[in-house]
Structures are given as C-alpha cells and as structure tokens.
Design goal:
Helix content: 25-40%
Largest sheet: 8 strands, parallel, barrel
Strand order of the largest sheet: 3-4-6-7-8-9-10-16
Number of helices: 12
Distance between the termini: 35 Å
Number of strands: 17
Order of helices and strands: EHHEEHEEHEHHEHEHEHEEEHEEEHEHE
Radius of gyration: 21 Å
Length: 384
C-alpha cells in the first residue's frame, strides 16, 4: 500500500478501478465518485484519474488565489451546488444594453443564482456584455455607448440600481471585438464604471483578449489597451482559451505554450497580482478532414470526452508541447479528432499560476461539472 497525497494516475494496460484502488490504498468508490465514472466503470489507456489520499498538500505549500467562473441562468442547480464551494466569484452571464444605455437582464431569472452564491459565501458578479439581437458581440453597439456620455451615464445608473437591489457584489466588463478607433473611449468607459461601482465597495474586472504584444493586430486585440485597463480595473481576466475553437482546425483549446506567451506579455503591462488566468472547462470534437469554412466542431465536456474515448475503445494521448490530452476515433466511417482538458492539463495550468504569482483564475464555463478539477484545485491552492 502507498500512503500519499492527492496524485494523478495515468491508466495503463490492464488497469481496473479495483486494481488502482488496491495499489494506492483507497476505496474504489472514491475513485469512481471523484472522477465521475459511470457504470460499468470502464477505463481506457491514457486516461487520467485523480487519486485522493488521506493527506493534503500542506497549507504553506498552497498559494492563496481568487477563483471565478461564468454561468448562464440555466445552469443545473445541482451542478452549481457542487461547484460553489470552490469559488470566490460567480460571474452571471450576462447583462446587455441598448444604444441608449438601457440595461438588459438575462432572459431567464438569475435571482436564485445570486441567492445561492450568497449562501456559500461567494460573490455574485454582474457580467456586462455588448451582445446584439443575434447573440453575438456587436462592436457597433460598443461604439454607440462608449462614445455617448448620456448613454454611459444611464447605463451606470441602472447597473448601480440593480447591484444594490439584487445583491450583486461586483461588475465584470466582457467586451470583445472593440474597434481600434474605440480603444481610448473604452478605457474611459471602464474608468467611469469603476468610479460608480467602487463607491459601492465592490470590484470591477475586465476580460482581455489573449495578446502577446502591444502591437498585435486583429479585431480581437487592437481595441484592448493592456496597461491602461490593467491600471484601472481591480483585476483582469486573460481569456487564454479558444486556440482550438468551433470553426478552427483541430488543436488544444488552451495549449500551455501559447498560454505562456500571453502571460509573458501580460506581466510586462499589468502586475501579476491583478491577473486572473482564463481556464477552459470544455473540449471539442472535430469531424475530419477539416475544411475551413465548412467543418464545425462539437463542444463537449471533459468527462464526456473521456467517456467517448472509452465508448469507441481508443487510447487517450497527451501532447507534450500543448500539455493537453487528445485522441482519434472513427464513427460511421467518419474520422474524429478530440481535444479536451483533464487533471494533467489542469495541473500544468495551476503550476503556471503559481510560477507567475497570478491573483487567480476564471473558468469558462461552469455549466458542466468536472469534479476532479475542483478537488485538485483545492489541494493546490487556498481559495480566498
């Protein structure tokens, strides 16, 4: 029997849950529960399992961090209950606005999320997004409001009213595809919102596209002024995911080599203790061959991705450069390539947070439970 802390076991040929439990001296039921294994508890080569021992990593070896996660109001009550013990902030997605600065609430009631977050001592945060009627980010809407003082004032007043009346404890500004011509106006907009929300005693955060230089071109990047926004906001979220995305070629969603490039640049502009690292809680399944403009990947949960590999009897591989799991399978004469996250890739990400001394992390998103991630997170960090 091996007496150990929380570790990661990679399944080898001939492994079963029972054999693994015996090796580590833990209950098979614990492995099943912690890793969300459905009956008949089959495994596949290369699968990563979190083994929770009797001991924990000592407190002095665990960095204090702030942890947030985004969720829509249609999240399962059970999933949210399972997740809240590991959060500092719950970002409720999302609140919009029109060109006159009138605040638009989510279509579904979110009051139960605010209440539940409070029950767990988690701060519910209003997430503000410039989503148009089609559900996509709308830079024309951004332009209209950030350059119109009356609309801006109206929006801030309504945000403050909602925060006071409904119990929000923070504002997260998630604007994407900002035009380069609106770069300075957006900085002024954030400063104006910060002034009003700070008067209530609550923080303002800003989501930042994953830039690797100040001069990086592209609609995602040119409108985001890292040093100015970092100076104004209480903290920022680096959206370090979506290298692999729905209409892009198959690859890791958050390859650690690419994530590191973003952090290396970000800390030259923003203090590390104001930076949250974005972490994806999902993967993609691409049908092959990939044809740009035609191929569309299926979004899948990390637990679902493992079960799919087991279903089709294929081993899970691990990219040493991306530090992410992937595999291939065939279904109905169509080849597929799957990239997702497991506890190995999460542990690599956690080590990066420690290495750079970042303030914390933000998960997109919380809609699917990944219990092993939360258990590992709580062993590696003290969640503030």
């Amino acid at each position: 029997m091996v007496i150990m802390l929380m570790i990661i076991h990679v399944v080898q040929q001939g492994d079963t849950v029972g054999k693994i439990a015996q090796v580590y001296g833990v209950a098979a039921e614990s492995i099943i529960f912690d890793n969300q294994l459905p009956p008949p508890y089959s495994l596949t080569i290369g699968q990563s399992l979190l083994i929770v021992g009797a001991e924990r990593t000592p407190l002095e070896a665990r960095n204090p961090v702030y942890i947030g996660g985004y969720a829509y109001p249609y999240i399962s009550t059970w999933v949210l209950e399972q997740t809240l013990p590991y959060l500092t902030y719950l970002y409720i997605f999302s609140y919009g606005f029109d060109t006159d600065g009138n605040l638009i609430a989510p279509a579904l009631d979110d009051s139960w999320m605010i209440s539940m977050a409070g029950d767990y001592g988690v701060a519910p945060v209003m997430t503000l997004t410039p989503l148009g009627p089609d559900g996509n980010f709308n830079n024309s809407l951004i332009t209209a409001v950030v350059n119109d003082y009356a609309a801006r004032e109206n929006l801030r007043n309504q945000i403050i009213i909602q925060m006071e009346e409904r119990g929000f404890e923070g504002l997260d500004i998630d604007f994407e595809y900002i035009l380069a011509s609106d770069r300075e106006a957006f900085v002024d907009f954030v400063a104006y919102m910060k002034e009003g929300v700070s008067a209530l005693g609550y923080p303002v955060s800003v989501a930042l596209a994953p830039k690797i230089s100040a001069t990086q071109t592209g609609l995602l990047y040119e409108g985001k002024d890292y040093p100015a926004l970092g100076a104004i906001a209480d903290y920022v979220l680096l959206m370090t995911y979506e290298w692999g995305y729905t209409y892009g070629p198959p690859m890791a969603v958050a390859p650690i080599n690419k994530v590191r490039e973003v952090v290396d640049y970000a800390i030259t502009e923003i203090p590390p203790d104001k930076i949250h690292l974005g972490i994806p809680n999902y993967g993609y399944d691409w049908p092959l061959p990939f044809v740009r403009g035609t191929t569309k990947a299926e979004t899948i949960g990390n637990v679902q991705a493992v079960q799919r590999a087991i279903e089709f009897g294929v081993p899970i591989q691990f990219s040493e450069s991306a530090r992410s799991p992937f595999y291939f399978y065939e279904n109905e004469n169509i080849q597929h390539e799957v990239w997702f996250e497991d506890v190995r890739s999460m542990d690599v990400t956690f080590e990066l947070i420690k290495e750079y001394g970042l303030r914390g992390a933000g998960y997109w998103n919380l809609m699917r439970l990944f219990r092993a991630n939360w258990l590992l997170l709580s062993d590696r960090f003290v969640i503030l």
